[in-house]
Amino acid sequence: MANLFAIYGANGCGRGIIPLARAQLAQAGIPADQLVFVDDNPPALEVNGHRVLTFEQFLAEDCVERYASLAIANSRIREMLAGRCIGAGVHFWNVRAANVVEMDEVALGDGAILSPFVTLTSNIRIGVHFQANLYSYVEHDCVIGDFVTFAPGVKCNGNVHIHDHAYIGSGAIIRQGIPGKPLVIGRGAVVGMGAVVTKDVPPGVTVVGNPARPLIKD
Question: Cys-Cys crosslink for 173: which of 37, 122, 131, 155, Cβ 3.0 to 4.6 Å?
């Protein structure tokens, strides 16, 4: 028996991640048939050359250990699925593109997904189940919480603190904070696509524009 590895979610996000997972496992000498999708509503029996299992089928597979990476954009669902996996004894693994750049003193939590051309510079702490999409970067002395999502092209400059469940939209730019006084993005805040964040964002608030301001709903 061998270990079994899964990408949880067989839709767009998962399909974009599974080639990275396949290449990463191949580097470790693990064959592609030990990599599957898990999906609560399987779109097909096979997607992009890999079997699609329900969670119950995944747990029933004959293997030594089970590992999952949660390719789910919604951070609240990601947290719920993480709890489900923990309860079932499923381990988490970090999926990362071969060209990810990681410099000094980076502490990266379990279950991270790092897409191609992501850069993590130095002295960074990142919580569990972080997702950094294409061409995103995190600069020095940043602290990022659990279940944080970066869409493609996020520019997170130095001395920034991003709390749990924050979502940073495509192309957003977060201004550099000051040592001892970081720029803070609160828990569950949303930074809109292309926004330029120049000051703290309160918890649960959506900001848009340049400079970023709270979204006013009609």
Answer: 155
DSSP H or E stretch at residue 20: helix 12-27
Q: For residue 7, which of 32, 35, 27 has the smallest C-alpha distance?
A: 35
Domain at 96-208, CATH homologous superfamily: Hexapeptide repeat proteins (2.160.10.10)
Residue 120 in tokens: 């993590």
Q: CATH 3.40.50.20 in the chain, residues? A: 4-93
Strands 50-53 and 35-38: parallel
CATH code for the domain defined by 4-93: 3.40.50.20
Structure confidence at residue 218 as a pLDDT band (50, 70, 90): low
Q: How far apart are the first and last CA of the chain?
A: 58
Residue 45 DSSP code = S
Higher pLDDT, 48 or 217: 48
Which amino acid is it at 204?
A: G
